[in-house]
Structures are given as structure tokens and as C-alpha cells.
Write the C-alpha cells for this entry.
Amino acid sequence: MKFDLTVNGRKRTVEAPAEMPLLWVLRDELGLVGTKFGCGIGMCGACTVHLGGKAVRSCQTPVSEVGKGAVVTIEQVGASAVGAKLQKAWTELDVPQCGYCQAGQLMSASALLAQKPKPAREEIAEAMNGNICRCGTYDRIFRAIELAAG
Ligand code: FES
């Protein structure tokens, strides 16, 4: 089937089975490989992207459910003021260790700050709850979000 998507501000038409997860459309059809595959069952957050401004697990989002919602991936996160501030804070605090989960972390963090510019620690913890980091960089992630929130 053909799907007309808006990805990172561009109209893209892809041909894919309706049930194909957005994750594979982004990576294999559109070459946007910044979005990572971790668990494939919605448990790790590595595949997080924005759909209509909300953080979603792209491994659990069939392309047929994307509809007219704007998709934003890690490749475009720096285009928003919030995303750019987060990227700066991430660099300043040297957040990543192996780095594999960090695209998903940044996408969840930027969705949070777009909705709540000054979140409390507990709100950060709640929003970032589904993003797992096997290197345990959580403390730096939290501090980077607080730094970006100013
Ligand atoms: Fe989607 Fe783990 S790969 S949540």
C-alpha cells in the first residue's frame, strides 16, 4: 500500500505493508537510521520518535496508523528551540556512554519540554520512565533535561 507521510517537515510517499512498523519505514525506506531498534516490543524506548508532537514507540506504530500526524525523528530534533537546547545540554554534560539509546532519550525529553518547559524531577522521571539505558546514564540525562529547561 501507498502512504503519504510528513517526516521531518517533508512530504514522503512510501510503499509498505499496512502493518509495517514506522521504525522500519523510517530506517529501511527513508534511510533515517538515527532511530534505533532495541527490543521491538515497546519496552525500551530506543525507537522513540514524535508523532503529532507526542513521543511514540515507532516499533509499535504501524505505518497505517500514522495518518496525517507529523513525524519528527532524531535527525530533525535540533530544528526546534527545545531540541537544540537539549542537544547543547547533552553535549555539555557528556551524557552518552555507548550512545545507543540516546536518540530515543532525546526524543522523549524534547516531547516533555515542549509540553512542560520547567518540569519537576518527578515529572522528568515519569516522562523518561520507558526509556532504558543499559549504561545507566540516567543521572546525566536528568541533569541535562534540567539544564535545558533552565
Ligand atoms: Fe521500540 Fe524497544 S525498540 S520500544
